[in-house]
Amino acid sequence: MTAPFVDLSIHHAPKGASDRIALGFTKTLRWVADTFFAERYGHRAVVLETVAAVPGMVGATINHLKCLRRMCDDRGWIKTLMDEAENERMHLMTFVEVCQPTWYERAVIIGVQWLFYLAFFALYLISSKTAHRVVGYFEEEAVISYTHYLAEIDEGRSENGPAPQIAKRYWGLADDATLRDVVLVVRADEAHHRDVNHGYANELAGVPQGAIAPCPPHQAIEPSWKQAA
Questions:
Q1: pLDDT at 5
Q2: Crossing angle of helices 41-70/77-98, nearest 10°?
Q3: Of 152, 155, 162, 178, which sits most exposed with the smallest number of CB within 10 A?
Q4: Interior CA angle at 147 toward 204 and 113, to 5°?
Q5: Cα 65 to chain centroid, rounded
């Protein structure tokens, strides 16, 4: 499978205080990640994908409850956000196979996940536009990080081992697929989430949404009740 083209030049220029707060928050977290992980991109992916799976589920939950209260249609947001959360979780499960997290990193994951969940939940209640802009900027940084990871592999500083079986199954990769193939499809996923969340923030701000990068095809993870139907 060939990963979709990713436009690395896309960046939402901040407009107004909300966007500047979102970008500043994202850059702060990027500095923390760079300081903590340096160029250990496999370990960085394990921790950051744990956090990246939170916003979609938070957004889906709050939108679901809002639609119940208002008895209105969700315009497809709930399923989109839940798919995003699931996709990020599959990124995590893939990189756990590539780079087993240490006990210290597992402890960091637990602490960071709780703090981020509570903070993002509060932010979404206060300003869903800012929350989606934060995720859009997060995903911009993710695209940059995975581009650097590809350079590490291409220049021989990171081993280009075989792709984990879970990745081959989820993205339909070839039997001889490598880690580089995995990073390519993960980066394309992140570019898709980037554009979707910037689009949602734009919609909430009343401005045009813009183009959305294609998402690589992947396996639908059906629930057990649907398999039995």
A1: 85
A2: 160
A3: 155
A4: 55
A5: 23
Write b or e for each residue in 97-117: b if 16 or more Cβ atoms lie within 10 A of its Cβ, otherwise e.
ebbebeeebeeebeebeeebe
**Lookup result for tokens 């979609």:** 56
Number of residues that make up the chain: 229
The answer to whether the Cα torsion of 70, 115, 193, 21 is positive or negative is positive
Question: Within a 13 Å sphere around the CA of 193, how many CA atoms are in the beta-carbon half?
Answer: 30
pLDDT digits (tens, 9 = 90+) for 96-147: 888 877 787 788 778 888 888 999 999 999 999 999 999 999 999 999 989 9
